[in-house]
Amino acid sequence: MPNSLLPRQIAGSVGLFGMFIKRLAWLGVVLGSAGLICPKLGDADLWWHVIVGRWILANGAFPHVDYWNIFGVGKPWRAYSWSNEVVYSLVESTWGLSGLLVLQCCLALALTIILAGVFSVAARSFAFGLAVTLPVLFCLHAHFALRPQTFTWMLFALLLSLAFQVSKEGPKRSSVSWLVVLICLWANTHLSALLGILAVLGILFADAILGRALRELVLLISLLIFATLFTPYWGGEWLSLIESAKHPLSYTSIAEFVPGHFQQPGVLMFMMLLLLLGIFLHYRPRTLTSSQIVTLIFFSVLGVGIIKFLPFAAIFLGFVIARVWGETEGRPALLGDLGQAIDRGLTRLAQPPVAVGALLL
User: Fold this and answer.
1) What are the C-alpha distances in Å from 171 to residues 122, 168, 177, 201, 235?
2) 59 φ, ψ to 5°?
3) What pLDDT, on the 0 to 100 scale, is given for residue 361?
4) What is the DSSP letter of 80?
5) Helix or strand or coil: residue 103?
6) Residue 237: strand, helix, or coil
7) Average pLDDT for consecutive 10-residue bins of the chain (361 residues)?
8) Are 143 and 311 within 8 A, CB to CB?
């Protein structure tokens, strides 16, 4: 073999090894992030979800009255999270507490992967998408548990991605169909499906008005509302939503209904992300439409005003930041000195030696 080919082979081997190490390091970051947000099985609500799932499996039906709350026995009640409750019950009856713990770890990993994937596609950069995922997960950390609402965070992220795709490419059959499927899954998981519908409406409203496609938007929103009717209660969850809408005002002593404050790390991180977005929009003010900005403000006020909804606000904010970065099309200088600094930092972190060091640490 000629000696001139040896340097090329060595360089190629080093390059492949570096790529392998870099991907291994990113995988370690994803797994580590999922592990950090995954707590012990300490959420009290998990156990009544398991009990309701047992009842559904034992009776082959869905409860229409409350059998478990001493203050509400016999009153009308709907198991609006039946899908998750059945899964929890099956896992608990088959593998016990260990099974529930593994299920929670899988949920944390799935959430991390979906957020990283959605943000990366929006940012057109895996490095930046993962960089946004980390602070968003930090905002979600205090709220994460094996609960149905945690599953809706993944649905919300996917919904945002599809809604912005419709905003850019128009209402194609495939994207609209997936929006309907996601809302239907959400309606069979938790009462908060209305948040997903409002997000889609806010993302598309300005484009529909300016493009005179208001009729298509009304049709899409009607389809999404219609999708919420495909539940065991045929849309009766809307009545449950109306009944529970006053809970944040009536039960202010419950921790998840109190307003956020700066002593909560998740709220502080959320405010820092808002500041980052404000700097980005200073340089790229036309990246978002007026209705998208109003929708972001709505979710931000909702998330800070009622801490239970902070995860939705953080996911929406993270997606918008990733999308603004993606609109620069690989020219971070369009976002000023901060954009260039972030790009240089991500480039350094993507180098194999730095990535390996981060993985080992």
Assistant:
1) 18, 9, 10, 13, 25
2) -100, -10
3) 47
4) T
5) helix
6) helix
7) 53 55 73 84 88 96 91 89 97 96 94 95 93 96 93 97 92 94 97 96 88 87 97 95 83 81 92 97 93 96 95 98 94 93 86 50 47
8) yes
Is the pTM higher than 0.90?
yes
Distance of CA 295 to the CA centre of its chain: 16
Round to whole Å and give the CA distance between 2 and 282: 57
Interaxial angle between packed helices 352-360 and 336-349, expressed in degrees from 0 to 180 and rounded to the nearest 10: 80
Whole-angstrom Cα distance, residue 270 to residue 274?
Answer: 6
Q: Could you give the CA distance from residue 150 to residue 145 in angstroms, rounded to a whole number?
A: 7
DSSP secondary structure letters along 1-48: --TTHHHHHHHHHHHHHHHHHHHHHHHHHHHHHHHHH---S--THHHH
Distance between CA atoms of residues 66 and 80, nearest Å = 12
Cα torsion 69, 54, 181, 160: sign = positive
259 within 8 A of 307, measured Cβ to Cβ: yes
Q: Which residue has the tokens 């409750």?
A: 85
3-class state of residue 154 by DSSP: helix
Buried b (16+ CB within 10 A) or exposed e, 180-213: bebbbbbbbbbbbbbbbbebbbbbbbbbbeeeeb
Torsion of CA 127, 132, 134, 137, to 10 degrees: -140
Distance of CA 269 to the CA centre of its chain: 16
Q: Which of 30, 47, 85 is nearest to 63 (CA)?
A: 85
Q: What is the pLDDT of residue 14?
A: 46
Using DSSP's 3-state secondary structure scheme, residue 104 falls into helix
Task: Return all residues near 28 (Cβ < 8 A) that are at least 6 apart.
Answer: 358, 359
